[in-house]
Amino acid sequence: MQRLELINYLRGLNFSIKQIKQLLNDQKGSDSLLLLFQKQIEENDAQIADLKQK
Prior knowledge:
3 helices
């Protein structure tokens, strides 16, 4: 159940299935999660900047 809840949570944050799969298969755990969150923040910031320009 915890794994399913994590997948659902990450999907809600717009993580791709590929990113989630990578995270779940990675043995480093929290380090990988932190990197994925940082990448997602960067992508979100880029989207926000793009929308502001429009």
